[in-house]
Amino acid sequence: MTAPAFAQSPQKINHDLLVKSWPAKWITCPGITGKEYGVYLFRKTFSVNSVPGELLVHVSADNRYKLFVNEKYVGNGPARGDLMKWHFETYDISSFLQPGKNVISAVVWNFAEQRPVAQFSAHTGLIIQANTSADSVVNTNKSWFVTKDSSYEALPVNLNTYYVVGPGEKFNSSRHEWMWMTADLDQTKWSIAAEIENGTPVNSFQEYGAPSQHVLYPREIPGMEIKPQRFATIRRSNLPKLDQQFLSGGKALTIPAHSTINILIDQQHLTTAYPVITFSDGNASEIKITYAESLFNDKMEKGNRNEIENKNIIGNYDIILPDGGKNRTYEPLWWRTFRYVELQITTQQEPLTIHDFYSLFTAYPFKEKAVFKASDPALTDIWNVGWRTQRLCSGESYFDCPYYEQLQYVGDTRIQSLVSTYVSGDTRLVKTAIQSFRESHLPFGLTQSRYPSYQTQIIPPFSLIWVTMVHDYWMLNDDAAFVRSTIPAIMDVLNWYESKLDETGMLAHMEWWNFVDWVDYKNCNRGSNHSRRHIKKGLGS
Predict the structure, then answer these.
(1) Under CATH, which number does the domain 226-363 receive?
(2) What distance, in Å, lies between the first and last C-alpha atoms of the chain?
(3) Average pLDDT of 151-174?
(4) pTM for the complete prediction?
(5) 99: helix, coil or strand?
(6) Among 32, 71, 245, 411, which one has the highest count of C-beta atoms within 10 angstroms of its own C-beta?
């Protein structure tokens, strides 16, 4: 996967596709419930006499997709929302086309009960709709073919903590259809796609008021930044004479037959990225890639994260099983968070060659426009670390943390919104976050504490913090119509609090979790629940 070659084009969406049902169908793999774990490959071949100047397509999937045209990566999505606001992306694929035969393809996956808590789901599926009827040949329907990719298996993550970003992957190379995107693929073993329903945009007529499984809405934020990056250094290994040039891509690494090797690699700072590994031979070998923010000592303490002596790596991981083929490339379906990466490789009858190992950084495309200067270099370091933290905690939503949760909590998001606004001037993600929390609004008046999230959590103080987020946005942006649209929900929050006042005018009993941030409250001054105060410990601590 490489960075997409163009920006999305939401302003060019055909108006009819915003107010009428789409001719394109949601399609899926026949014979599945649509609720189970699975990875599916979709494809369609079509011909063009000449390359058009523009060919816009609108794409979505449940849970996620990666889109390709003629074996070249186009983009991924959809941007996270909920079932009543299911996003689609718009791409101009003309630059990927060629005269004659073309292939448009997509990998779609559903992590089912192991999906991230931030990920809603209704039914495994893919939808692609051309912007104009002249290009309808690419529309998803029964002209598409699909197969289940049995090479993938979910690896549950057990870290004895709250980890909800999705499973690891076990990838069996011998089961993968390596030529699945090529024009000359034999499709006789593939199935004709099963149709589910027409695409239904948010403004279209819903018969008898019954919405579709996914109410489609244009993506509101730009595509994520994707750029190659190299690992910094090898910190330890049991492989004699291991050349650091392996990390630069300048020298392949060959592991002899009947060997087990461990290589601990240090990025030297935390990152969010898709790891990419290319390998040959090594039939029946196993490559285990473990990811961690820090190493742990025997007391499960992290300590100084630069230090590795007498420490081990504990974290989520992926497993790749080579099939003996040449120049196989694997990257996980979803990105990983790491500073340290360990390669643990075991070979059997034949050697395994690792041609390259690097990663593709990904995050919301904030640009650092503010400038900070100080005579004290420590302050400059704090600024740089703070901005890196902001980048790593910003994707299709803001994150409380990229490694463990990837959930957008109001308490964290208000601070992140201010930081990203002042440093970048880009308020699109801020506005999307405010909208998301408004859409989480519950019938009795409060917003949810985090959203999108298919597991409801209610923290009343976070609803008040959401109100302050709206005020921040109003002070910094000329967008009165949007701010005005939030007022009914704001009034509901304030009315809920007013209903909790006792005869003294103070807050009395409060339902739910009256929390701000973590402290050792068991050792605090004991009193009634509503008088105990949690202390904000700060972003990123």
Answers:
(1) 2.60.120.260
(2) 33
(3) 96
(4) 0.92
(5) coil
(6) 411
